[in-house]
């Protein structure tokens, strides 16, 4: 008889775990308190408009690709992605000037600069720091299990150095 697993919650995390258990041959039941799956990654409709309740950005595409690979699937067989231009448009109440974000650092830093002097450079610095943190997270934390407290003490020297740097930069 197959081993049974119950996953509580059908957000992206729960559905992701359920898919991996099912791939390993477990009999999976997903319990969800709401009437529909998706958790924070959802939409609602009002007056003919559809609104995202959570994510709008397809962040970390490599992590999604990795996940589909674990399932033995090609992500392009499941997702039909189209890059939006502009990526994002912000409407302000009582202000006719919209702000567009383009996923182009040269264009976007000028937009930030026009709103607040100095913000263009701050945006670049923020994105550089975010890229660094993303690399540290994916290379050293994301795919490592911390099953016991001892896992925190078994790092290689280079892991320790990177994490210390990260902590210092965030201090
Ligand atoms: C406004 C907003 C914007 C965001 N923008 C982005 C973005 O642009 N890009 C991005 O990548 N991420 C974004 N995120 C983050 C992303 O939405 C979340 O990280 C992700 O959806 C969380 O998934 P999860 O499965 O961990 O949790 P959740 O989505 O919270 O799922 C938990 C599920 O468990 C269910 N549940 C809880 N308790 C019980 C119970 N006792 N019994 C049964 N079911 C239960 C809940 O109903 C829910 O369905 C955004 C989040 C928000 C809120």
Write a compact overview of the structure shown.
By secondary structure, the chain is α+β, with helices and mostly antiparallel strands. The protein is built from five helices and six strands.
Please describe what this structure looks like:
With 171 residues, this protein is an alpha+beta fold. The chain has two domains: 58 residues, no CATH class; 88 residues, no CATH class. Helix content is 41%, strand content 18%. A two-stranded parallel ribbon has the order 1-2. A two-stranded antiparallel ribbon has the order 3-4. Helix 3 packs across helix 4 and helix 4 packs antiparallel against helix 5. The longest helix has 23 residues. It starts with a strand and ends with a helix. 1% of the residues are buried. The mean pLDDT is 89.
Query: In what range is the share of β-strand residues?
Result: 15-25%
What's the pLDDT, averaged over the residues?
89
Cα-atom Rg, whole angstroms? Answer: 21 Å
Quantity of strands, as a count? 6
The ligands bound in this entry are: flavin-adenine dinucleotide
Q: Based on helices, strands and strand pairing, what is the structural class?
A: alpha+beta
Kindly report how far apart the N and C termini lie: 52 Å
**N to C succession of SSEs:** EHEEEHEEHHH
The portion of residues assigned to helices is 40-55%
Task: Outline the secondary-structure elements.
Elements: E1 4-8, H1 12-23, E2 27-31, E3 43-46, E4 49-52, H2 61-70, E5 88-92, E6 95-101, H3 105-115, H4 119-141, H5 157-170
Parallel strand pairs: 1-2
Antiparallel strand pairs: 3-4, 5-6
Helix pairs in contact: 3-4, 4-5
The structure holds flavin-adenine dinucleotide.
């Amino acid at each position: 008889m197959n081993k049974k697993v119950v996953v509580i919650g059908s957000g992206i995390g729960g559905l992701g775990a359920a898919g991996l258990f099912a791939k390993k041959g477990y009999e999976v039941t997903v319990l969800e308190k709401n009437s529909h799956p998706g958790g924070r990654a959802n939409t609602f409709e009002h007056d003919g408009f559809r609104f995202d309740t959570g994510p709008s950005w397809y962040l970390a595409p490599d992590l999604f690709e990795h996940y589909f690979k674990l399932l033995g699937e090609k992500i392009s067989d499941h997702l039909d992605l189209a890059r939006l231009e502009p990526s994002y448009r912000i409407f302000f109440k009582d202000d006719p000037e919209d702000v567009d974000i383009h996923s182009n650092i040269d264009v976007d830093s000028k937009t930030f600069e026009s709103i607040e002097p100095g913000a263009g450079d701050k945006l670049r610095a923020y994105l550089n720091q975010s890229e660094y943190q993303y690399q540290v997270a994916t290379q050293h934390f994301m795919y490592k299990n911390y099953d016991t407290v001892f896992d925190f003490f078994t790092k290689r020297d280079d892991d320790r150095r990177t994490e210390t740097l990260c902590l210092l930069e965030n201090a």
